TrEMBL record:
Presence of keyword Disulfide bond: no
Domain ABC transporter: 32-273
InterPro entries: AAA+_ATPase, ABC_transporter-like_ATP-bd, ABC_transporter-like_CS, ABC_transpr_LolD-like, MacB-like_ATP-bd, P-loop_NTPase, SpoVT-AbrB_dom
Listed PANTHER family: ABC TRANSPORTER RELATED, IMPORT ATP-BINDING PROTEIN
Keywords: ATP-binding, DNA-binding, Nucleotide-binding, Transport
Protein name: ABC transporter ATP-binding protein
Family matches, as SUPFAM superfamilies: P-loop containing nucleoside triphosphate hydrolases
Molecular function terms from GO: ATP binding; ATP hydrolysis activity; DNA binding; transmembrane transporter activity
SMART domains: AAA (SM00382)
C-alpha cells in the first residue's frame, strides 16, 4: 500500500467508525436516510471517490430533486438507493430496509416491492412489443396480482397520469413524453413507497418534460409515492418543493420552495436556499458567497443572538469585520 492509500484507508475507517458509533436515531422519522455514505470505485489501479461522506434525509411523501454536475455522484447515489450497488462505507436505510445488510434475495424483494424506477432511456423502461396497459400489468403479474385487478390498476394509473388514450398503444406508437408517463405508471404498478427517476426528462423537449414532471407530481400527490428525481437539469427545481444539490460526492446545499398567498389572494413562490449542516457540524459556503467576500482558507466566526456571522480573515478595518467580529480579547 502506498502512503496515500494508507491515508485514504485511515480516512475511510474513521468515516465508517463514526457512522457506526452514532446512536441509531439519525433520521429516525425519515423514509430515506443516508449517513456518511462513501463509495469508492477501483478502476485499473485508480481510485475514484464517487460519494465522499454523503448525508441525506428524505421524509415520507416528499417530492425531491437531486441535482449536480456530471460526475458529482448522482448516479452512484441512485444505484445505492435502488439496491443495485453497495456503498463502501456509511449507513443507508430506505423504510425498514438496511441497504448495507441485505441478502441477494432481500435485494430482489426490495426492488420488486419497495421501490419503482424510471430511467432516462425510454427504451429501458418499457417492453417494446407490449401495449401501455400490458406493460403496466406485467410487474403486477410477477407480483401475483390477479387478471381483473391488474387491468383495473393499469386503467387507474393511465387515467391518473393523463394518458388513458395510450392504453392500447405500443411504445413505438407513443411520443417520448407519453412513453415516460407510461414508465411512471409501470414504476407505480405495485404501489411502491418510493419512485426513483433518473434523468426522466433527459431526452425530451420542454413541453414533454413539463408533462412528465406533472405526472411525477401526480404520482406524489395523488398516488402517495415519495418521489426522488435525479437530474443535471436545474429547470426541474421549479417543479418540486425541495432541491438538493450534490457536489463532489456530498450534499452541498438545498433550495426549498413554498407558495405564499398574500392578503389580495395573489400566489407567489418563495424559494429559500440553505447550506447543509452535516452531523459533524460542517457547512459548505456557496461558491458565489465565497468569491464576493474573497473567503479562502480561514474565516472568523461570531456567535450572535440568532445567527452565526462569518467574516473574512483580514486585518481589522480592512474588511467588513466590526462589532461582534469574533475577535477574542
Ligand atoms: N463503475 C465505475 N467505475 C469507476 N468509476 C466510476 C464508476 N461509476 C462512476 N464512477 C466515477 O464516479 C464519479 C461519480 O460518477 P456518477 O456517475 O455517480 O456521477 P453523476 O453525477 O451521475 O454524473 P452524470 O450526470 O455524468 O451521470 C465520477 O468521477 C465517475 O467517473
Amino acid at each position: 500500500m502506498t502512503s496515500t492509500q494508507t491515508a485514504d484507508r485511515a480516512a475511510l475507517d474513521s468515516l465508517e467508525s463514526r457512522a457506526r458509533a452514532r446512536p441509531g436515531d439519525y433520521g429516525a422519522n425519515a423514509l430515506i436516510a443516508c449517513e456518511s455514505l462513501v463509495r469508492i470505485y477501483q478502476a485499473e489501479g485508480i481510485e475514484v471517490q464517487a460519494l465522499q461522506g454523503l448525508d441525506l434525509l428524505i421524509d415520507p411523501g416528499e417530492l425531491v430533486a437531486i441535482v449536480g454536475a456530471s460526475g458529482s455522484g448522482k448516479s452512484t447515489l441512485l444505484s445505492v438507493l435502488s439496491g443495485l450497488d453497495v456503498p463502501t462505507a456509511g449507513r443507508v436505510r430506505v423504510g425498514e430496509w438496511d441497504l448495507m445488510a441485505m441478502t441477494a434475495r432481500e435485494r430482489v424483494t426490495y426492488r420488486r416491492t419497495m421501490v419503482g424506477f424510471v430511467w432516462q432511456q425510454t427504451a429501458r423502461n418499457l417492453v417494446p412489443y407490449l401495449t401501455a396497459a400490458e406493460n403496466i400489468a406485467f410487474p403486477q403479474a410477477l407480483a401475483g396480482v390477479r387478471g381483473a385487478a391488474r387491468k383495473r390498476r393499469s386503467a387507474e394509473l393511465l387515467e391518473a397520469l393523463g394518458i388513458g388514450y395510450c392504453a392500447d398503444r405500443r411504445p413505438a406508437q407513443m411520443s417520448g413524453g407519453e412513453q415516460q408517463r407510461v414508465a411512471i405508471a409501470v414504476a407505480l404498478s405495485n404501489s411502491p413507497q418510493v419512485v426513483f427517476a433518473d434523468e426522466p426528462t433527459g431526452e425530451l423537449d420542454s413541453a414533454s418534460s413539463d408533462q412528465v414532471l406533472d405526472a411525477l407530481r401526480a404520482a406524489n400527490r395523488e398516488l402517495g409515492a415519495t418521489v426522488v428525481i435525479v437530474t443535471h437539469d436545474s429547470g426541474v427545481s421549479e417543479h418540486v418543493e425541495r432541491t438538493v444539490a450534490i457536489r463532489d460526492g456530498r450534499t452541498s446545499s438545498e433550495v426549498r420552495r413554498r407558495t405564499h398567498t398574500d392578503e389580495h389572494g395573489a400566489e407567489q413562490v418563495i424559494a429559500q436556499e440553505y447550506a447543509m449542516l452535516d452531523r459533524a457540524g460542517r457547512v459548505q459556503l456557496p461558491r458565489d458567497y465565497r468569491e464576493v467576500l474573497e473567503l479562502s482558507d480561514r474565516v472568523r466566526l461570531a456567535l450572535e443572538e440568532s445567527h452565526i456571522a462569518v467574516w473574512p480573515d483580514r486585518p481589522s478595518g480592512a474588511g467588513a469585520a466590526g462589532a461582534g467580529s469574533g475577535e477574542s480579547t
